[in-house]
Amino acid sequence: MIREIKLQGNANENVDYHVTVAGVDLSNRYFHEFLPDGDRFFSGGNEFIITRTGVRYMGTGGSLCEYMFGVDLPLKDLLRKDVSNRLVMYGAVYDNADNITFTSSTTSEESFDQAFLSGNAVSNYYFFAHTNRKGELKELQRYILKDIGKQIKRTGAVGRSNDTSLCREIFELLGDKKALIFLFRLVNKRNEEYFSTFRDLYSKHKSLSPAATIELDQLAQSYNIIPYQQERIKIDSMYKLPENKKVVDEYKDILIGVSDKGEVNPSDLAKLSRLRTLSLRLNIPYTLFDTLDDLLLKDMHIVEVEEPDYIRDTRAICEGFFLETDKLRGHVSTEDLVKLLKAKQKSTLHRDMTFESLLLDTVRACDEHARDTNDMSALESMSSVLTYFDRYDSTSSLINNLAFMENASISEDSIRSIFGNIEVFDLIKDGLFRDLFIDSIRENRYLTRYGRKKVDTLHTGLVQIKTGDTTYRDLSNALTELSEQEKLYTIIHRYVKDRFRSIYSELNSKEDQEIFIQDLTREIQSKGIIDGPVPHTVFEEIILDIRKESFYLNNLLPHIIVSRDSKVREDFLMNSGLDRFYVEELEKDYFDMNQIEKNILEELRK
After folding, report:
1. Residue pLDDT, tens place only, 462-518
2. DSSP string, 526-562
3. Rounded to whole angstroms, what are the CA distances from 118 to 23, 69, 289?
């Protein structure tokens, strides 16, 4: 007793067909005849004709293919994670409410070009069923869909091109022992070869070499494969690589969860952004994600939160610690580490506690994840990141104290610690140490003159230590000397302003200045204000600064107040060399003394 018959043929030089017929007894049930324009397969009012250019069909049944990029994907199918195949019943249409309506108009035809463009680019199935069930065609189609639809849309036999298994599944699902199933698989040989060639060239390095690109272009040109079809095949091949599939499926799962909630919150957006970023590093094209976004995010309410870029980047990286894909979970690249360190820098600068809050939540979640799943990967990655943050905090604290604290110096051990951290940070990215700790401080408008001198001396000294041109002790002594100069400047400057308010304009000549400096030195030494000699340069610096203060208060500031010209003020602050904070104190005193409205000063400072 024959239970299965398999046939293979060529519709034309490009399309092969495979026919599988399954039933209880096929020995005396004729089902095939040759026609002038092709092969006809029939049984009980059903027929399927394969010609050189396409197919014609009537009766029961439908078409079936594995979903790929470019195949119409209903939202209901997308929301079901286990659905992998598209099933289209003859004569069935969607109504306005997205429900299936059946008609008895099942006769139609389809060209091969249309079949492989709207369906799968390589392989598409058609089938019809001859059963003992009676009724109108539309009712028979409804019953067939009800019997086979759920399982056939999920079976792996379609993707594996396992005709015997698929045909047997349909037969068993119909539950009719006398049923006869005709299954037809059409294969586009040229697209199939292009698919396998791309897969072989791409899978090894997950990228295409120039030679591989040329080979593919030549193959597409010789087979006349249109660019859109090439793109579909490439994307499908990329998606089917196991490591890529995990990433895209996780992205899809997040979107499905979002769809259930009806809105997209910042955490969801961060996860999606993180997967896109990581996928780019894995050479997974954005097109795979764009298609899913178009289907699931199109009419979704997105909960927008005003966040700076550095917080958005931090949120995305933190969400990445809990991705489902093993290869991506807890993955922190060099680029990510740079982003996190700069985010920490910016959050400190802007007094933004959101960064620390995100960090604490992530640490807590990593700890809970490790406890609940016994998977330590995320916690270990987070611990590694925290080690860099500890180094950042210690280095930042030392350098900021040196830069902004009056009379601050730094010990040899502290310099040695900073030098060790230079190697650590610059190993992440060349020049990162200078970017994080030197340039950012030098750009601070409130950095004092001596603060700038100490930061520059520190950085130059660290470079010289590396080249062997100085030592930790020499650098520490140089910074201590600058700190002593700063202390002298502060004490003497304050004393001069208190004791000699009317003398600034009288110090016009060099001789007058020399006499003034000698008298001042004797006076402050006799009063015990300072011990030992004062460098001549300190006095000259103070006199010059006092002249600048006098010019600003007596000439420039009145003009700025009247004209509201904040550009002139900013130009003076940038080029005078006076400390901004000190000038702002002078301005405040000037406005108080002259009883000028404070809102004018606030306007100028904006």
Report:
1. 999 888 888 989 988 988 888 888 887 777 777 776 655 544 445 566 676 676 677
2. HTTSS-S---HHHHHHHHHHHHHHHHIIIIIHHHHHH
3. 31, 10, 20
pTM of the model: 0.60
Q: Residue type at 260?
A: D
The span from the CA of 244 to the CA of 359, in Å, is: 29
In tens, the pLDDT along 302-311 reads 555 677 788 8
Q: CB under 8 Å to 478, separation ≥6 — which residues? A: 457, 461
Q: Is the dihedral of CA 358, 363, 366, 368 positive or negative?
A: negative
Residue given tokens 């650098």 in the structure block: 475
Sign of torsion, CA 262 243 280 359? positive
Cα separation, 55 vs 39, whole angstroms:
10
Rounded Cα distance, 147 and 170, in Å: 9
pLDDT by residue (tens digit) across 396-455?
Answer: 888 888 888 877 778 889 999 999 989 899 999 999 999 999 988 888 877 888 888 888
d(CA 295, CA 96): 17
* Contact (CB, 8 A) for 305 and 274: no
Structure tokens at 580: 């901004």
Describe the crossing of helices 242-261 and 287-296 by its angle, rounded to 10 degrees: 20
Say what the pLDDT of residue 547 is.
77
Q: Give the distance between the most distant pair of CA atoms in the chain.
A: 130
Q: Domain residues of the chain, as ranges?
A: 4-188, 392-492, 503-605
Q: What is the DSSP string of 391-437?
A: HHHHHHHHHHHHHHSTT----HHHHHHHHHHHHHHHHHSTTHHIIII
